[in-house]
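note to self: dont lose this again. the chain is below, predicted strucutre after it. 419 aa total, dont forget to put it in the shared folder this time
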Amino acid sequence: MFHKRVLANGLTIIEIPQKNTQTVTFLVLARTGLKYEKKEVNGISHLLEHLTFKGTLKRPDKISIVEPLDRVGGSYNAFTGAEYTGYYAKVEKSHLDLALDVVSDIYLNSIFEKKEMEKEKNVIIEEINMYFDHPSYHVQSLWSEVLYGDQPAGRLISGTKESVKNIRRKDILDYFSKQYVAKNTIVVISGNFKNIKKKVEKSFSNIKNGPVIEKEKTEESQRKPEMILNYRKTDQTHLCLGVRAFDIFSSKKYSLELMAALLGGMMSSRLFLTIREKLGLVYYVKTDYDKDSDTGSLVTQVGVDNSKVEKAISAILKEYKKLTREKISSLEFKKAKERLKGSLVLGLETSDSRAVFYGTQEAVKKEVLTPKQICAKIDSVKAKDILETAKEVFQPKNLNLALVGPFKDKKKFEKILKI
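---
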């Protein structure tokens, strides 16, 4: 169970008690990220996240922030997404006060020194280089680009080298003052704790109020299959192939979750058995359903020998089409449902995973469902729902392909991008 309350200033606090653990996690989320950024400061959410570990009024450098947590064996980090940015520390329960103090301090009191900012820009540029040099990562960025183009949802969370270099300290301070305010903030406490209410309220008593930057609504328009080819002399081609789908508020999202599991969400999924085990075309294959508040897509990613790319694409499309023609068997349907429910439960055994599970739901939807409620919704999906949803999303006009490999000619792929 969990307890959610919203203070008068708009700050949301979620408590998730868990007695059968010796740990506690503090997670603070800001409802801001990639989709809230202007093009000229693309990457500002991510850069700001990095800079919070560089110094605060109370802790003037990184060592004074991280060393106390290291001393007690704590686990800590931060992350930036499309619609939220998070900061957390997980510690043994007796160090609860330390975790709360450090996380609230970096969230509220970071100083963003210009000198540190310029150094961290170089670090992020190397991060951009690293992901670009790994085709299996870079193709995921191209997938977003082919779907959403030149709008926030189609850009990089890290930003580009040019946009990162051009971000000024003034931009950081302005973004921080507008986005890191009470009504945009969610504080999550998960694990073995008690008597926490007053401590949390005191730690966040000086949080600012004020209006926030609203995100730009993502526009979607597609009339035919689209693709992006990134030419490289590689030994293996990495590709993402899939369709536009529904956002996180759609009643069809659980059908899509099940479709992703059936297609490429487990080692006995259809695509794994077909293109890896039967045809021997790939080493890895996975299908995911990605969803945010205003976007959604179902995508299959593989790495395949350059000479077998067309065969792999055709095999994936064949399985997509099959879902639109044949109702799945009761045995396979039950397996997919149990897979989703089982992985959900297994993924929530630790205090940090629970904090993220509850906190990110609140950040994106402003509504939190328990694992039991989600499992009930998964169980409520009928085989006919899968068939209907598959027919709706697996249409030629919805198809998209992002590819990294030694290919320049789109025509050869246009011929096979059909369902």
